[in-house]
Design goal:
This protein has about 160 residues and is of the alpha+beta class. The protein has one domain (about 25-160): L,D-transpeptidase catalytic domain-like (Beta Barrel). The protein has three helices and eight strands; from the N terminus they run H-E-E-E-E-E-H-E-E-H-E. The protein has an eight-stranded mixed β-sheet, covered by helices on one side. Strand 4 (about 75-85) and strand 5 form a beta hairpin. The chain is globular and about 45 Å long.
Length: about 160
Amino acid sequence: MFRPALVLVLSAAPVAGQAAPDLAPPEQRATRIHVDKSDRRMTLYRGDEAIARYAVRLGDAPHGHKQREGDERTPEGDYTINGRNPNSRFHLSLRISYPSATDRRRAREGGYPPGGDIMIHGGNAGYRAFDWTDGCIAVTNAEMDRVYALVPNGTPIHIDP
């Protein structure tokens, strides 16, 4: 008598997390990323062709270049994608190479830590109305599936004010 109930309970259990999307074939991948903080827009390019555009959310204090750990700013300048996390607490994430040598030097001269762990990551679509990250660049989970597939490690990213 308990067996049917057990089957029902097990079938209602959540399915384990989906596997991260595979990288797209090389001819479909982005070769660079441009983020415009003032427009809250991220564009993926293959050569000179824009292949995808996304509205983004930034850190809680989005104006100005990230200076130090905890300032909740999104960095500005030239970086690269240098890591992929299929098990991110924000769905999927791509690590941005902040801090650069210049960022580390500036922080050292100022006597404070530069911070780190700046990512492009997913997030609940309900957060679209405001900037909410600690300095990261956020898109929806569905958009992040596509970004994750299109952007390999080593992809340059330029972040404008």
